[in-house]
Amino acid sequence: MRVADPVWDDLVSAALVGTGRRRAAEWPAEGALGELAARVDRTDEAVRLLDLAAIVMVHRRAGRRAPAGAPPEPCAEVDPRPSVPESARVRLRILLEGDGMDFLPEWLAVARTAGLRAPESELPGLLTAARSRTDLRAIVAELAGPRGRWLAGLNPEWAWLTRIAAGDPDDPIDLWRHGRFGERLAAFAVLRAADPDAARELLARTWRAEPAEDRAVFVEALGTGATAGDEAFLEAALDDRAKVVRVAAARRLGALPGSAFVARMSARGRACLRPDGAGRVLVVPPGECDEAMLRDGIDRSSPTGREDHSWWLGEVVAATPLSVWREVFGASPEEIAARALPRRFAEDVREGWARAAVLQRDVDWARALAGRGAPTRLLTVLPPAECADHVARHIAEHGLSEALQLLTNCPTPWPVSLGDAVLDAFATAAGSGAYPWSFSGARDVAGRGLDPSLVTRVDGLAEGDGEWPKAFRALAETLRYRAGMRREILDGEPRSAR
Amino acid sequence: MSVRARTVAVMQQRWTAERVLALAPDAAARTAGSALARPESWSATGASAIAGGPIWGSGGGATAYRTVVDPAGPTGRCSCPGPGFPCAHALGLLLLWANDPAAVPVGATVPDWVDAPAAGRRARAGLADPAAARRRAERRAAEVAEGTERLRRWLADRVHQGLVGTEREGYAMWDGIAERMVDAKAPGLAARLRAAGAIPASGAEGWPGRLLEDYAELWLLLRAHEHADDLDPSLVAGLRARIGWTVDAEDVLRAARAEGTAVHDRWLVLGSRDSVDGGLTERRIWLRGIGSGRPALVLAFGPQGRAPRLALPVGRTIEADAAFHDDAVPLRVALGERTGEPAAGAEPAGVGPEEATLAYAEALRREPWLEAWPVVLADVVAVPEPMGWRIAGADGFWLPVDRARTGEQALWRLSAMSGGTGLTVFGEYGARGFVPVTAWHEGRAVPL
Fold first, then answer.
1. Mean pLDDT of chain A
2. Which of B213, B240, B267 is the last residue before a domain boundary?
3. Taking every annotated instance into account, which residue ranges of this chain make up the domain SWIM-type (chain B) (predicted)?
4. To the nearest whole angstrom, how far is the Cα of A22 from the nearest Cα of chain B?
């Protein structure tokens, strides 16, 4: 706090312009300070000023008192949840300050499951981390509790927490009008969740001014809170000048039950597939791609050079509501998928069904198709445990080389069955003489995903010399680290006795 | 390697890094030595299993060096063309030996080149010669006196010319005068000059006042040094430490034991803070005697980029002898052998902001150049205000924060832990405000 001090201020003024131009003032030889000052040698003005400055400086320092009048602070609400053990708090700080961001989501998830609150001393680090890691905001807000909200109220940089707490991510209308694309998209999602029709009308107002790529993304965004009112808007978008928008609109309409689009596609689909006896499917691909099909988002020819009839067939099957087949075949997805398909069209039909299952998030169809060599993205439709089972089977059959994406999509920690499959695949790769660094991506994912209880198996693989045992030792080290981290949160036991 | 080391490590007593660094003739040598205190700098190293036996190392590519040190002297030699012992290689080797037992294995096979001149080495008196040591001390005192006289003239000239325009000077001017102080073996003055140089460059409001305050601090030290013969010896000790003389902790301990002045106590570890200066990591550890109630400060150093070897658990207590340096207001200590394991420590009793300012003033009365004094504050909160952070007591009295030495994160941590309710906080209060170091929250000591 700045307190007026004419003696010191005069010294500063004289020093600023230089004693060559201005002398420090004389003061009366009164009081301890004055008497001391009077004894200062005055042969050289610069020396005199520095002598005086040294004396006054010590005098000021010794005389400085704590100012009064700080108003009492408002207190935060009490958080009844217990805090994490001390060792877990120390670990969290290391994660936040070092390069431990890979393990932060797991730390947070374990603490939440245990019903603990975040340690207050690490709230500043957590709130700052979640500023850029938007995926962690919800869990950080939950663990931070009332103390986090209290703290965020003091620092505008943590306003995100205040907004989450208030259930108000800024003013969405304002963001929609003035934000950048990403912010507008987020605002649109919020508006759409609140009032789907009003949000769509807001979009219609700026529609013609939006760039084509953005129009396509906004059409996708209409997937949230779809209503019958969307149909006219989407039908109009089928005539958009940009193809990306037309394709997106067709996809959206295909997911809108009872729309004219769905009726048109269902009719096309019915014409393509029907039962052939008890165990076969009769396939009749479209004879041509007419104007109506073009308008509904089906291209005249395949971008990858697939034969025209096969291409049209696949496109129609993919866009047809899966419920149609239940009616046509009078059977479950499992039974339909088990029917034999004519070899020429088998791949197109299966691929079409699989795409439809992903698009329509149809778990029954995904399940029916997953075991039949269908594309791997189908698995994202399945519940986590089932997905892990399928990935485990996929890895057992095909190894790890194409499994990275699949593994990344599996929620962590993986079930032991999947972990075992991954370790089997590593062991096989090691035995085949493959280079360990070709698997470094899978190993990183495994380090985060494997259940730490598998560490003894990894230790077994790590025996001996060479690159593979070295890689397994690193993996075991990661698992031990995570096991220690979990243990610290749950029972406060340090990772290892030092 | 490790097996062999384990069997004989008891024989050779390793030094502390401080003791090694005390051998360095100047700051530049300390920096160069600490840069070589990495295992990568050496291709082969070893230490004799016999107490006082040689420590050796070889390394370097095109400019290969072979270094032998006899810690008993200490004496040594090196194949480098440097001006004599201890060269940067010898310092680096000793630091490595002090800090990283695995990097300098004890009992390794002694290469031929180590032993050859051993007889000659023993014949030479080396640094153990008291007359030589006195000559060196006199030479250094003369160098420092020359440096302080130069700085006196420089400061007077700055004030004669006027501070105005200093904000447009580059760092080169400050580095220039700071370098002169390093050459004059007054690294403490050099560090102050570099810190002062940052003030006008910041262009912050009120910089002339703060710059004059830094000049006045330097001036006070220079004037006191000039009249050191008239001062109480205890004032001179602190003065010399600020100018840049180092004292070997071992010597302080030995003297205190001889005189029976070592303080045996259980010490609560109040806080620990690391800072980097001139390539060295300096660790300051504050203690409070449970029985004596005395505050104490332990300094430990680590070479470039490495943590000092001494680490004490904040919030816990240790039992040890502490030898206080001969300071006017005793604070710096050399810590002797610790007995037993660290034990749980209670939350320390503290005072309010008003008493903190009084405690500093009282210490200042006895040692006028004290920058700060350790204090435990009780029942305070950290509050962000438009004019800066406040550390406020329940009675409304508050302390400003020394932002040059306190990070934003530390203050927010303090605020988060308090949640508006008072905490016990340890820190330093002094000329530039309060620096929080440790807070007690729900019975735990949390480093800020």
1. 85
2. B240
3. 65-98
4. 9
Examine the domain organization and report whether A269 and A375 are in the same domain: yes
Range in A83-92, A234-243, B121-130, B262-271 with the lowest mean pLDDT: B121-130
> What are the DSSP E strand ranges found in A257-325?
273-276, 280-283
Between A48 and B281, name the one with better pLDDT.
Answer: A48
Q: Do B11 and B98 fall into the same domain? A: yes
The alpha-carbon gap from B286 to the nearest alpha carbon of chain A, in Å, equals 21
A19 and B159 within 8 Å at the Cβ level: the answer is yes
Cβ pair B420:A74 closer than 8 A: yes
| Residue whose C-alpha is closest to residue A326's, from A374, A264, A380, A368 | A368
Element (H, E) at A17: helix A6-17
| C-alpha to C-alpha distance for A447 and A456, rounded to whole angstroms | 14
Residue A170 main-chain phi, psi, to 5 deg = 60, -170
What is the per-residue pLDDT across B82-103, written as a single tens digit (0 to 9) for each?
Answer: 666 778 888 888 888 887 777 8
Domain identity same for A128 and A183:
no
* Cβ atoms of residues A381 and A362 within 8 Å: yes
Q: Would A81 be classed as within a structural domain? A: no
Residues B178 and B88 in one domain: no
Classify residue A78: in a domain, yes or no: no
- Structure confidence at residue B7 as a pLDDT band (50, 70, 90): very low
A 77-106 near B (Cβ less than 8 A):
83, 86, 89
- Looking at the complex, does the CB of residue B409 fall below 8 Å from at least one CB of chain A? yes
Task: Give domain status of residue A473, yes or no.
Answer: yes
Position A166 scores a pLDDT of: 61
Q: Which domain holds residue A223?
A: 172-254
User: How does pLDDT run across B333-390, given as a tens digit for each residue?
Assistant: 999 888 888 899 999 999 999 999 999 999 999 999 999 999 999 999 999 988 889 9
From the CB of residue B202, how many other CB atoms can be counted at a distance below 10 Å? Answer: 11
For A398-420, write each residue's pLDDT tens digit.
777 777 777 887 877 888 888 88
Domain final residue, candidates B240, B267, B297: B240
Range of the domain at B230: 131-240
Say yes or no: ipTM exceeds 0.90.
no
Q: Where are the alpha helices (DSSP H) in A360-415?
A: 363-370, 384-398, 404-409
Q: How many domains does chain B have?
A: 4
Same domain, A55 and A39: yes
Shared domain check, A102 and A18: no
Total number of residues shown for chain A: 498
Q: Is residue A462 located within the same domain as residue A405? A: yes
Q: Does B381 touch chain A (CB under 8 A)?
A: yes
Res A167: pLDDT: 57
Q: What percent of chain B has pLDDT over 90?
A: 45
Q: Are residues B9 and B103 in the same domain?
A: yes
- Inter-chain contact B160–A46, Cβ cutoff 8 Å? yes
- The answer to whether position A71 is within a domain reads no
Domain count within chain A: 5
A304 plus A289 within the same structural domain: yes
Give the B window 220-249 contacts with A, CB below 8 Å.
Answer: 220, 223
Please state the rounded mean pLDDT for residues A281-305: 87
